[in-house]
Amino acid sequence: MSAAAFHDTLGTKDSKDGMPNSDIERVDTETASQQVGQVINEVDATGVGVFGAAAAAGGEQFRVLGKWKAAIVLIHTEVGIGILSLPSVFQKIGLIPGLLAILGVGTLSTWTAYVMLLYWRRYPHIDNLPDALRVLSGNVLAAIGGVGLIINLSLACSSATLAMSVALNTLTGHRPATIGIFVPIFIVIMSLAVDKPQTAPEGWNREITLWATPSFQDGFTALLSVCYAFGGRQGFLMIMAEMKDPNREYVPSLVILQAFAIPMYLITGGAIYGLAGDYVTSPAIGTAPILCAKIAYGILLLTLFATGLFYGHAGIKYLFTVVMCHVLKSPEQMTMNSFKSWTAWIVLTTFYWILVFILANAIPVFNSIIAVSSALFVAWFSFGFPGAFWLHLNWKEQFSSKRMIALACLSWGLVIMGAFLNTSGIYASIDSLVDLFNNPDSGVDGPFTCADNSVF
């Protein structure tokens, strides 16, 4: 099948108004958001999007995820590195604000994840966030979003790489599948119940602050850490692109994710902070007594490695899709074992991991790399853009009823929230990182450092 025939099968030629055409049944954009939890569209998803069309051209079928497999992938996308920074959030802003922040951001993130499905239902050809941004506002925004997506996924890999560096420094004392992240966290909690935190002095007193009065920098970076923990929405459209039936199975998968993630975040953040008080570290594993921290990090290494590979695969797959479709003009070979497809994959993989290495060394502090990533990208990808997607779907009807007015106010609020977190968050995260570099007691004097970051 030729590339032109491939695109005809996909049904994504641009119409005169710049919006993509499709022979697939569409839903009414003015009522899409009112059909909460209902199946709007009876499309056979296995033939939709670039992967469905590639399979139709003779390649392997990648749209194979059912409800439970999709839920596992969503959990792996969401519940990972970000959870290790949550106990320090409680330290900065207090126990009660920390719990409220997780509940509030978790609730908002449930809605924004659902909006992703509404947008896919209206435009079933989209396979990733840049595709959705192209529908929203054209090629310029899609290109900006594509670059941002690659950088943010690279930062996610960098945070995993940095956490592995912390783990190795802890295991060696700074000398030259998955059990998951939950067993190490359980080890930390249990060890803190019977022994003092690693950085606490002898005779220490546990002090828990219910309501803290943080500085602007500390408060904002704490909020950014919570947002980062719910930042997996950037990849949810990619996951939908590999589901057999997103219409029926995405919502149950999302419910499974949130029913697992929100309680896990509350327990982890609250329990470790409650047991360690002001002596929590970030990543949180370093809070445990040294022997238990080494055991936990030893178990965690495999998960950190898998997490880095997971986000790396997502970033490389997006680059591969763009290059095969728009540079090499061979989208029909995307899921085939050809010389062209393998050469493109190997070159892009090499480029991607070089970028990850540079970013991991440019921002060598775990909390800072999370704050920068959250401010630059998560603020928009997980909150601001979903608000814009809902408004795009319901622009003419956003003030047609009390319910629609409430949802419109929520969506406008998400857009404003994205802009505010982005601008103020960049200032707070970079300023705190500069202060850290200038602090002689921090032990981290700048990027590309060889300093010990095992307990920080």
TrEMBL record:
Ranges of biased composition (kind: Basic and acidic residues): 10-28
Membrane topology of this protein: Multi-pass membrane protein
InterPro entries: AA_transpt_TM
Gene Ontology cellular-component annotations: membrane
Keyword tags: Membrane, Transmembrane, Transmembrane helix
Nuclease in keyword set: no
Limits of the Amino acid transporter transmembrane domain: 181-430
Region Disordered: start-end pairs: 1-28
GO molecular-function terms, A-Z: L-amino acid transmembrane transporter activity
Transmembrane helix recorded as keyword: yes
Compartments where located: Membrane
Transmembrane segments: 98-120, 140-164, 176-194, 220-241, 253-275, 295-320, 341-363, 369-393, 405-430
Family membership noted in the UniProt record: Belongs to the amino acid/polyamine transporter 2 family.
Protein name: Amino acid transporter transmembrane domain-containing protein
Species this chain originates from: Penicillium angulare
